[in-house]
User: Fold this.
Amino acid sequence: MVGKVYLVGAGPGDPDLLTMKAHRLIRSATVIVLDRLVSDDIRFMFPASARVIDVGKSASNHTLPQEEINQLLVDLARAGHDVLRLKGGDPFVFGRGGEEALVLAASGIPFDVVPGITSAQGCAASLRVPLTHRGIATGLRFVTGHLKGDEALELDWPGLADPATTLVVYMGLSSIGGIAARLVVEGRDPATPVLAVTRATHADERHLLTSLRNVAQDAARARLGSPALFIVGEVAGLAAVLQAAGVGFEEMLDAAE
Ligand SMILES: C[S@@+](CC[C@H](N)C(=O)[O-])C[C@H]1O[C@@H](n2cnc3c(N)ncnc32)[C@H](O)[C@@H]1O
Assistant:
C-alpha cells in the first residue's frame, strides 16, 4: 500500500496559530519530515513515537537539497508510510511546496495540502498592522529578496513602486538595502514606512519601524537576525498610531522623517 503525504503549513511559530487540521495531523503523525522554520513549541507537540526527519537542520551545512527531499517523500510513501511534511508558514508561499506537489503527482503518490498562516500575516497581526487598508493600500504583493549568487533580483520594480501597494519582502535580510534603493529609484517615496520583524509570533520577536531611506542602516544597527520579514508601505506607518494607543512595541528606531 502506498502512503499519503500531507503538505502542511505550521504557521509563523506560535502553536496557537496552527489550523485545527494541522494540529490533528501533528498529534497523530507517525513520520514527520520537517523544515528549520518549524518552531520548537510546535516540535514539542510531536508524538514521542513519531519518526522525525529534520531536513533543514541548520542553514549552514545540513540542509538536504530539494531534489533529495522530493525523493525522500516519494520513497517514504512508497514504503507505505503516511507522511506529515511540515513547513513554516504556508507550504505554498515561498515554501517550495509546489515543487514537492508536482513530484508527488508525477510519482502517483496521493497527497493533501493544508494551508498555514504565512509569516506576512503573522507579522502583520502581531504588530496590529493591516496589510490592506481602504484609502491607503489597495493591493498587496509578496516578493522574495533571496539572491542567487551574484544574480540581480528580477522583480516587477515599476509595479512595486506603486504607493498604494503594500510590499512584503520575504528572505530579504541581506538584500533589503538594494531593494529599498531600487524602489526609490523607481519613484517610491524614501519616507515610505517600513516595518522589519524577526521571529514573528515567537516569544523573542523583535521589530522596528523605519523608512525606505533608513531601513538598511537601521536593520544593520539593530542586528536583526533570521528569519526576518519587511513590510513596506503606508500601512506600516499605522504601527506608530497603534503604539501611541499602547500596543506593544518592544523596540523602535527612528521612524520615517
Ligand atoms: C523560505 S521562506 C518560507 C516562508 C513560509 N512558507 C511562509 O509562508 O511564511 C523563509 C522566510 O519567511 C519569513 N519568515 C518565516 N517565518 C518568519 C517569522 N516567524 N518571522 C519573520 N519572518 C519569517 C522570512 O522572510 C524567511 O526568510
Summary: The pocket of S-adenosylmethionine is lined by residues 12-13, 37, 87-90, 93-95, 118-119, 122-123, 170-171, 197-201, 227-229 (CB under 6 Å). The beta strands are 5-9, 31-34, 51-54, 83-87, 111-114, 139-144, 165-170, 193-198, 206-211, 228-232.
